[in-house]
Amino acid sequence: MMATPWIAAPCPGLREAALAVVCEPDPERKAHGAQALAASPGPVDPHAVLEATTPLPGRPARPQLVHHTQLVQRPLNTLQGRAALLHALAHIEFNAIDLALDVVWRFTAMPDAFYTDWTRIAAEEAQHFNLLRTHLLAMGFDYGDFPAHNALWDMAERTRGDVLARIALVPRTLEARGLDASPAVRAKLVGAGDHRAGAILDVILRDEIGHVAAGNRWFAWLCAQRGLDPLRTYADLVRAHEAPRLRGPFNLEARRAAGFSEAELAALSS
User: Could you tell me the sign of the dihedral formed by the alpha carbons of 109, 111, 117, 120, in that order?
Assistant: First the structure.
């Protein structure tokens, strides 16, 4: 974690700066850039059409990215097993920085509050990444020491042409799965004696409820703008973009706190 601190290049506004952070390959600089952007967001031009000049997102040479079926499950009663699990969580949070800021730069003609919401969320994802990476370092490991998968960004690519699909299938689907998984993952780590990891997961769950809530809020807003039924539209988008099928157990308390309706929760059960 010795990279040169992030210094934003002069640019006319928030969305251009968000693209610069997504392009950044160094993990420490990307995380710092996301937090600096939220602290000093700059003006928003919602109508600017931006183009990336490098492949997205910027990535470090490590971790090696493999298909999720190639990832090895390690026993949590070993230090390496716990580190591998924490590394997987850190990789999710690293991706989440890019997912939030990709929404900011890519999609036009949204209200200013949309862009500032996702900029704030990116900064919180950066904090989560830093917490997990610092804990990994204390255990004798670092981000990049284990292979990882690219499923989160794959969904971003599949939904790059429509903000409604992106909001439906990233925060409201993939990130909401994190709400469901968090209690069991926390219990396993604490049960293995890693109470620091448990405290970090408490912070992440608290913030992720707010992130999924933002997804629900903007999904409802977009459906209203387009005159669409939210339940039917969500089901159509899941089929059209081949989103993963959600499986229980579901964290219904967290999902309710994040704004899922009782009709949506009933649809999960069916």
Answer: positive
